[in-house]
Structure formats: C-alpha cells, structure tokens
Design brief:
This protein has 406 residues and is of the alpha+beta class. It folds into three domains: 162 residues, Alpha-Beta Plaits, CATH 3.30.70; 58 residues, DNA polymerase, domain 1, CATH 1.10.150.20; 150 residues, DNA polymerase, Y-family, little finger domain (Dna Ligase, domain 1). Helices cover 42% and strands 21% of the residues. The strands form three sheets. It has a five-stranded mixed β-sheet. It has a four-stranded antiparallel β-sheet with strand order 9-12-10-11. Strands 3-2-4 form a three-stranded mixed β-sheet. The longest helix is centred in the last third of the chain and has 28 residues. The protein is globular, with a radius of gyration of 25 Å. The C terminus is likely disordered.
C-alpha cells in the first residue's frame, strides 16, 4: 500500500541539465549535440544533450569514447557556478509552489503539493504550472512524475523524459508497475538481478506476487523486505524539506587573472548582488561576511567580518567586502573571488548600521532602508522577468565590455 491515497508527490528532473544551460546561454548550440565533461584524456561525460544521446553518448562515458561516437559535437568543460545559479532559479520556483521541497541534487527534487491544491488546482495543473514557470523564468525544460509515493514519482519522471509529464493515478499503481523490469526497483544491481532471474522473477509484478519470506531468504532481510515493499508501491517516506543552510554565497573563477582593485571591486558587485538576492529569496539575513580570494599561483586566502545585526542589503555587504579586499595585494593577480554570508537568521526588521551614533546613524539607517526597498523592487522585477532583467548599473557601464558570468 502507498503512504497516501492521492497522487500529490512530484519528482521534478531537469532535462540534460548542464548541456541545456549551455544551449540556453549560447543559442548557436541549440538543436546541436553538446557534451559537457572533463576534456582531458581521462575525462568522463557529465551530461550529454539529447542530440548527442542519439549517437549513443551517455553520462559517465569516457570522453574519448564520446568523441568517437559523436565527433561533430561541441565539447565543453563544466561551469559549475553557472549551473548552481540556474538550479537556484528552478528551486525558487518550486519553493513558491510548496514549502515541502526536498532537493536531491543540482537538477532534481521532490515536491509535496498536497497543501497547494486549493490555490493551484490538482497535481496535473500544478505540474503544468511548474513546467511553464521554469521555462519562462529559467529558460529550461524539465520532466515531472506525479504519484502517491516518492519511488513511483521518480520512476514516472524517468519515463516522462524528455520534457514530459507522467501521472500515475491512484488505484492504477499495480497495473503501472507490474509489467516493468525488476531493474526499475531501487536496489537492484547486477548481482541482485542475477539472483532474481534465477528465481524466475523478471518483472516488478513477479516480485510483488513472490513470497516475501522467500525473497528474504534469498536476498537477505533488508533487501528482501525492501524490494517486496516497493513492488507493492509501499514507500511511506515523506518529502523532507532541505536542511537549513549554514551559508549562502557566490564565487567565480576568471578566464584571466584580475590585477587591479577596480576590476576586483566590479566583480564584488556582481557576487554580492547574487548572494544577497539568494538571501532575500530565502527570507534570511546574515551577520558574517566572508571574502575568499585565490591568486594566480593558486594560493587561497579568506577574511571575515561580523556585523552587529543581520542584513540582506547588498550595499552593506559590499562595503564590508571592499574593506576585506583592501587587505590583499591584488596586483599579484586574482584568479578567483568569492563572497559568502553566514550566521544566517530570519530577515531583519531593521538593517545594519556600522559604528554610527546619533544623527549620523539615523541618516545612515534611512539610506540603507531606502536601498533595501529598491532591492526588494528589483527582486520583484527579476521574479517576473528573469534574473538578468535588471542589475547594478556598475555592471553595464557603456565604456566597459560586458561579459556574461561564467
């Protein structure tokens, strides 16, 4: 028996995620085979676009074999910071639908939508809303499985790929599962498959109809009970929201080293804006600002400063980050910069004011609160039109060459 009577668990899985982000950022790659992974002789494929999969390229395949199978593909190194950024955009959409989001990895999550039905409709309608919003706001396609258990929702999303929805209606679970091969059960690897085949069990329906004690004697107590339960769609695990974050941040490795304070401060604007936007999305403030710097020789240093009050205002964080940066000689060449925010708390009702008293403090507080209002308005615009629709003016100065964050 399943743990609930309704199909209200969604498993959301972004299609060919890394490759899809590359095709999103570079329109010339759309509709062409794209392979992302380690480009060296010992590299492996992280993700292949569906155009590349048509040539037999798969994740975890040695890159040398992928080049033989699809030499016409575009081969790219992963840009993890960019993928994390897009993942956050997608997870923010899911969190706006339901507070019960359990992120499994950078590109997949479970969502319990039982509490969202009154506002958004039945699970089919909610799945459609999620898919449309992710496409509109993040530019990505995803597949959704909808079922009464985590196990079945994950299975359904796998079968819905690419860019599809598969709903297993309540009461149809045995008919849906029965014909599927036993390899669809979590925990069935090559050794277990051999044992099941020796028992004459080739489908999930065969396992469901098998004597549970025979399975236990053959496979061991834990695996035997586990497979028998899954074959009956017995998976009572709830969707458990992501554990509270200990820090939120952003960092970037640059194509060529930065050698001036102005270059570094420009990047700090970008990183601080990104990190603080994530804070505000989570309804959080941070008390500690951490700066990470890596020089051209790969030496990595950090500095941190703790504020009197938590804040989510970019200008406050940026002022601190600039002060921390001033402690380093950037003329050595800066390979990487990162800004992370820790000692997280609920969003502050009053914004931080640094070491000021009396009239100066009042003026500073008013200025910061005005800035906080502006940033909230920016967040609303980005929520409607995407994360790149508006940003700090210093990043779009006419005399500077615009460079997309990689």
């Amino acid at each position: 028996m399943s743990a609930r009577l309704d199909a209200t668990i969604l498993h959301v899985d972004l299609d060919a995620f890394f490759a899809s982000v590359e095709q999103l950022d570079d329109p010339s790659l759309r509709g062409t085979p794209v392979i992302v992974g380690g480009l060296g002789n010992r590299g492996v494929v992280s993700t292949a676009s569906y155009e590349a999969r048509a040539f037999g390229v798969r994740s975890a395949m040695p890159m040398a074999r992928a080049r033989q199978a699809c030499p016409q593909a575009t081969f790219l190194s992963p840009r993890l910071a960019r993928y994390v950024e897009k993942s956050h955009e997608v997870m923010a959409v899911l969190a706006s639908v339901s507070p019960l989001v359990e992120q499994l990895s950078i590109d997949e999550a479970f969502v319990d939508v039982a509490g969202a039905r009154r506002m958004l409709g039945d699970p089919r309608a909610i799945a459609a809303i999620v898919r449309r919003r992710v496409l509109d706001e993040a530019g990505l396609c995803l597949s959704v499985g909808v079922a009464s258990t985590k196990f079945l929702a994950k299975l359904a999303s796998d079968m819905a790929k690419p860019d599809g929805v598969l709903i297993v209606e309540p009461g149809t679970e045995p008919a849906f599962l029965g014909p599927l091969p036993v390899t669809r059960l979590w925990g069935v690897g090559p050794a277990t498959l051999t044992k099941l085949e020796r028992m004459g069990l080739r489908t999930i329906g065969d396992v469901a109809n098998a004597n549970e004690q025979v399975l236990v004697r053959t496979l061991g107590a834990s695996l035997g009970h586990h497979l028998h339960a899954l074959a009956h769609n017995d998976d009572p695990r709830p969707v458990v929201p992501e554990r509270e974050a200990k820090s939120i941040g952003a960092e970037e490795t640059f194509p060529s080293d930065l050698h001036s304070v102005s270059q570094c401060e420009r990047e700090l604007v970008r990183l601080t804006d990104r990190a603080c936007a994530r804070l505000r999305t989570g309804g959080l403030g941070a008390r500690t600002v951490n700066l990470k710097i890596r020089f051209g020789n790969f030496e990595t240093r950090t500095r941190a400063r703790t504020l009197a009050e938590p804040t989510a205002v970019s200008t406050v964080v940026l002022d601190v980050a600039r002060e921390l940066l001033a402690e380093f000689d950037v003329g050595r060449g800066v390979r990487l910069l990162g800004v992370s925010l820790s000692q997280l708390d609920d969003a502050p009702t009053a914004q931080s004011v640094l070491d000021l008293t009396g009239e100066a403090q009042s003026e500073q507080r008013a200025r910061i609160e005005r800035r906080a209002a502006v940033e909230r308005a920016v967040d609303e615009v980005r929520g409607r039109f995407g994360s790149r629709s508006v940003g700090p003016a210093t990043l779009v100065e006419p005399n500077e060459v615009s460079r997309e964050t990689r």
